[in-house]
Amino acid sequence: MTSESTCPKCQSENVYHDGSLWNCPDCGHEWTPGASDAEASQERIIRDANGNPLADGDSVTVIKDLKVKGSSLVVKGGTKVKGIRLVDGVDGHDISCKIDGIGAMNLKSEFVKKA
Q: Which InterPro entries does the annotation name (predicted)?
């Protein structure tokens, strides 16, 4: 049996071809022949220092003291940051947030843990 004749999500053999897509009536999954699910989604998963996936709106805790570039301010370890936003930032800064007493800034996900 070919890979197109089974659903890659639920492995059901009850699939049908509709135009350029294959469909599975059992689980509702649609896919393009020859493309894997990882290639189809192409969504970058941002993870914290412990490997937990992060999402927009999560709260995180800073795990070590971070110097604010161009300032004498320091973000202390243990600072809780609420309502983060994931971005494709420069130099690995993939979290955009506001920190009380400091303001808007970008953080690297390797220096935070999910709260």
A: YjdM, YjdM_C, YjdM_N
